[in-house]
Amino acid sequence: MTADKIRAMDVAEIENKVKESAEQMFRIKFQMGMGQTGGLKKLKELKKDRARMLTIIGEKNKGAK
Fold first, then answer.
1. Which of 61, 43, 53 is CA-nearest to residue 18?
2. At what angle do helices 11-33 and 40-64 cross, to 10 degrees?
3. Contact predicate 40/51, CB 8 Å
4. pTM (2 decimals)?
5. Distances 49 to 8, 35, 36, 38 between C-alpha atoms, Å
6. Domains of the chain from N-terminus onward
7. pLDDT for 3 beyond 70
8. Do residues 22 and 58 lie in contact, with contact meaning Cβ atoms separated by under 8 Å?
9. Residue 65 confidence class, pLDDT cut points 50, 70, 90
């Protein structure tokens, strides 16, 4: 997900997406622990997207004050 798409969302929507990505990351880590491979690329993408979302939430909260 690009930063422009994330910036177009409300803070509540972004927080919801952060929760969803955390759940997905947990599932992928669990699957990788069980010996299933192929989730590493998706895990890296989720980490980057989650970091982008958290950064933009921080920017919006800082700008709102």
1. 53
2. 160
3. no
4. 0.84
5. 15, 25, 23, 18
6. 3-64 (1.10.287)
7. yes
8. no
9. low
pLDDT digits (tens, 9 = 90+) for 14-63: 999 999 999 999 999 999 888 887 788 999 999 999 999 999 999 999 87
Separation CA 6–CA 1 (nearest Å): 7
Q: Is 24 exposed, middle or buried (0-12, 13-18, 19+ CB in 10 A)?
A: middle
User: What is d(CA 46, CA 65) in angstroms, rounded to the nearest whole number?
Assistant: 29
Structure tokens at 1: 């997900």
Residues in the chain: 65
Residue 47 in tokens: 């980490």
